[in-house]
Design brief:
GO molecular function: peptide-methionine (R)-S-oxide reductase activity
Order of helices and strands: HHEEEEEEEEE
Number of strands: 9
Number of helices: 2
Strand order of the largest sheet: 3-4-8-7-6-5
Domain MsrB: 12-134
Pfam families: SelR
Shape: globular
Distance between the termini: 14 Å
Largest sheet: 6 strands, antiparallel
Bound molecules: zinc ion
Organism: Micromonospora vulcania
Keywords: Oxidoreductase
């Protein structure tokens, strides 16, 4: 289900025709879905979450935990698959996370909240990811 490198869209117009309007808004315009509305908020199904845009494997269900924040939360990403970018929008210093392959927006990462031993929360929009059940 992963796109080959030569199939990756090169322009935002090419992404726009591949994605639904909501997917495009979140993945390519760094939008945020409303809390508690995403399809994976409470999902416990075992499997691997792929980038909704390009299909790259990003998160294992083994790292998903209940954060009660309204978005799917993972305390780790598959190594090298998620890149972090400083985000100073909304008057806050946050760290945006994007797919390392297609540069699509996933959500934000937070540290020091104490949810899990890894002390990290990748707060991800459901619409940015696709679960492939194990
Ligand atoms: Zn991607």
């Amino acid at each position: 289900m992963s796109l080959d490198d030569n199939e990756l869209p090169q322009t935002e117009d090419e992404w726009r025709v591949r994605l639904t309007p909501e997917e495009f808004h979140v993945l390519r315009e760094a939008g945020t879905e409303r809390p508690w509305t995403g399809e994976y908020v409470d999902t416990k199904t075992q499997g691997v979450y792929h980038c909704r845009a390009c299909g790259l494997e990003l998160f294992s269900s083994d790292t998903k935990f209940d954060s009660n924040c309204g978005w799917p939360s993972f305390d780790d990403a598959i190594p090298g698959r998620v890149k972090e970018i400083e985000d100073r929008s909304l008057g806050m210093a946050r760290t945006e996370i994007r797919c390392a392959r297609c540069n699509s927006h996933l959500g934000h990462v937070f540290h020091g909240e104490g949810f899990t031993p890894k002390d990290t929360r990748h707060c991800v929009n459901s619409v940015s990811i696709k679960l492939e059940p194990r």
